Amino acid sequence: DMSFICLGDTVSLLAEGTATNYVWDKEVINGESFRPMTTKTYTVTGTGDNECSAFASITVAVNDKPDVAASVDKPSVCQFEEIVLAGIGAMSYVWSDGVTDGEAFKLTTSTSFTVEGEDENGCKNSASIDVTAELLPVVSIFNADEISHACLGDTVLLLAQGDAINYEWDNNVVNGQAFALFESATYTVIATGFNNCVNSASIDITSNSLPDVTIKDHSTTVCKGEGMTLKGD
């Protein structure tokens, strides 16, 4: 007979039959678990009431655990960037935190991931790997609510602020430098942090049209010192 286990597992050898006493070699006790470290053959002697004995043997094959390792395509990324974790050294893998082996996902925070790999013998081993998520810079637009309702022709100043080291606007806007507003548009700023991670903020500015104002042409002659009322349409 042959039995297969993985290195580090325990096994229990139990001899049964019509004998009244069972004695195993190699210091094995009948029915009690032990932990074999190498493949060995174990023999039990069964003795009946008539002092007659019989023998039976079993080989316990000890399979090594797979040499499992954990890998990542990028050990350090910016927050919310995608990474791919993959197991090495086994046949199938189960990751912690709901990660699927070999599939990309977004990393939200620095985490230590653990993978358990199983080989063709059903033996398992595990490994861990640390992945760092660099924080994105904080960025906001100063006085955004007021600016978003500017009037056509107004001078607008877009100022991005936060903990970044550089701010780059689209539409040829320079951070903190005023410009004249001629049309409604969306303005976006890209903020770069000390760790080279980037974040963004946007503002929709609606350039409200100026009202048409005219003065009615009513020729009126008044004497010096008299008052008059001007009405615009």
Please supply descriptive tags for the structure shown above.
233 residues; mainly beta; 1 helix; rod-shaped
**Nearest-integer average pLDDT:** 92
How many strand units?
20
Number of helices: 1
Low-confidence stretches: none
Describe the sheet with the most strands. Answer: 4 strands, mixed
Distance from first to last alpha carbon: 108 Å
- Helix proportion range: under 10%
Q: Oligomer, anyone?
A: single chain
Order of adjacent strands in the largest pleated sheet: 1-6-5-3
C-alpha Rg (nearest Å):
40 Å
Q: What is the strand content?
A: 35-45%
Which helices and strands occur, and which strands form pairs?
Elements (H helix, E strand, L loop, with lengths): L1 E5 L4 E2 L8 E4 L8 E2 L5 E8 L5 E11 L5 E4 L3 E3 L3 E7 L3 E4 L8 E3 L4 E8 L5 E11 L4 E3 L2 H4 L7 E2 L3 E3 L3 E4 L9 E2 L4 E8 L5 E8 L28
Parallel strand pairs: 1-6, 8-13
Antiparallel strand pairs: 2-4, 3-5, 5-6, 7-9, 9-11, 10-12, 12-13, 14-16, 15-18, 17-19, 19-20
Summarize the structure.
By secondary structure, the chain is an all-beta fold. Helix content is 2%, strand content 44%.
Summarize the structure in words.
2% of the residues lie in helices and 44% in strands. The chain is mostly beta strands. The strands form seven sheets. Strands 1-6-5-3 form a four-stranded mixed beta sheet, with no helix packed on it. The chain has a four-stranded mixed beta sheet with strand order 8-13-12-10, with no helix packed on it. A hairpin with a 5-residue loop joins strand 19 and strand 20. It is rod-shaped, with a radius of gyration of 40 Å. The relative contact order is 0.12.
